[in-house]
Amino acid sequence: MEDDDIEQVWHGALDASEAVLTQPETYTQVGIIAVIYVIAFFLASKIRHYAPVLDDDRITAESHPVLRFIAKCGNLIFPLTAILMLRISIELSDTLLDQAWLVRTAWSIALLLLFVSAVNDFVTGRTANRVFKLIGVPLLLLHMVGLLGDLIEILESISLSVGNIQVTAYGIARVAIFGTLLFWLARITSRTGREILQRQEDLDLRTREVAVKLLEVAVFVILFLLLLNIMGINLTALAVFGGALGVGLGFGLQAIASNFISGIIILLDRSVAIDDYVELDDGRAGTVREMNMRSTTIETFEGKDIVVPNEKFIVEPFVNWTRKDQNQRYRVDFSVAYKTDIDKLVDIIKKVVASHPQVMSGDKLPIELRPDCEIDSFGDSGVNMFVEFWMEGIDDGKNRVGGDLLLMIFNAMREHGFEIPFPQREVRVLNPQFSVSAPKRVKDD
Question: Do the Cβ atoms of 374 and 385 come closer than 8 Å?
């Protein structure tokens, strides 16, 4: 291009700029854009004032993940309001001013800024942030100038046939772009779900871990199905194949599938949790130490681990001693002689039992939770008594309270002179002439 041509182009551009700047419609559009941004800023400030949850400045790192997400969405109120008003102003400017190029330009720039702001707020990873900007910004620009459709046609024309399968450059690009987006969404969903579940303090640690694993499996299964749909694979054929495979596995892995489903049911109804003391229908008992999707491990007081299939907790009855309440009631039996002052004995035994550090006692407790001593029955050799008491935990293993109380009761009875009965028999001789003599010895020759 010669110097004269360059000078001609330059003068043409200056004349066009001067014509634009001298038009009142241009300044009208500038005023419309300025008013729109002032109104959008005012509305966004008022919304944040009356809805503090949308104010990112009031949210800390320790806040709930859902609150942090909502607060980040609050940052988009201002640009979204401006974009909506600009889009309406484009139609009004075309009708009233017969031109809206400046408002349309402002709308396009606002869309780009909204996209960049959303990526900066929601995509925290440095690599993912760069990938989204490098791919999203050019695609958005091409869409705004109307060239995205032409680019798609060019990419569709570049194809490769492998048997009955035709692969196009557009298909590869679509799978790569949407696959990256879906994978990022799956990671964000999984991470957010993990953080929410780990904050549920009413669930024990193992249950939270199992729930997190189930969430991750569900998220990535959905991701896999969506990718298959984007790739154009017929999900109906996949469903038929999966159904046939499921029937075949159902016969061979019926027990494993049953235990897996039972583990999910236990997780949902929370009938068993870590550190619960359970007693099975066959008499085995222990503390739940580990739960997984196939079985539950119970540790006995002898240090043995019992691996119980999850199905047993669904189809068979069992006793959960500590799930609802850690406080348990127990009973200790003993006997005293008939000549014992029972009223005095009851008071002494109550005080002795209440002195044990693990026994619940005190005037602040309801009377039904305090130690109680009563007569059970009248035996052959003495009066059968019992003591009922409440304690926290199980009376076994480390909390062997019953044996301690028996020793304390024995020492207290001996200290206060109470007689502990033992079996006695009385023999009466009805014939007064009857006598018992010692046997004669036989002398040796």
Answer: yes
* pLDDT at res. 243: 66
Which residues are within 8 A (CB) of 199 and not within 5 positions of it... i.e. 6 or more apart? 64
CB-based burial label for 175 (10 Å; 0-12, 13-18, 19+): middle
Structure tokens at 124: 């925290």
Cα–Cα distance measured from residue 354 to residue 364, given in angstroms and rounded to the nearest whole number: 13
Q: What are phi and psi of 133, to 5 degrees?
A: -70, -40
393, 411, 392, 398: which is closest to 352 by C-alpha? 411
| Span(s) in the chain for CATH 2.30.30.60 | 256-320
Q: Under CATH, which architecture does the 327-415 domain have?
A: 2-Layer Sandwich (3.30)
d(CA 418, CA 408): 13
What's the pLDDT at 12?
59
For the chain, residues classed under CATH 3.30.70.100 are: 327-415
pLDDT of residue 7: 62
Look at residues 378, 380, 383, 381 and name the one whose alpha carbon lies nearest to residue 345: 383
- Please answer whether residues 405 and 323 qualify as being in contact, where contact means their C-beta atoms are separated by less than 8 angstroms: no
Look up tokens 């200790």; give the residue: 332
How far is the C-alpha of 199 from the C-alpha of 202, rounded, in Å? 9
Residue 97's CB is within 10 A of a number of other CB atoms, namely: 17
Report residue 164's pLDDT band, with 50, 70 and 90 as the boundaries: low
Pick the CATH number of 256-320 from 3.40.50.2000, 3.40.50.300, 1.10.1200.120, 2.30.30.60: 2.30.30.60
3-state SS, residue 131? helix
* 342 CB-near residues (< 8 Å, 6+ apart): 336, 375, 383
The secondary structure of 270-305, three-state, reads CCCCCCCEEEECCCCEEEEEEECCCEEEEECCCCCE
* C-alpha dist (Å) from residue 333 to 128, 403, 410: 71, 11, 11
C-alpha 132/C-alpha 114 separation (Å) is: 13
Dump pLDDT digits (tens) for 10-67. Answer: 655 565 566 556 677 777 888 888 888 898 888 888 887 777 777 666 666 666 667 7
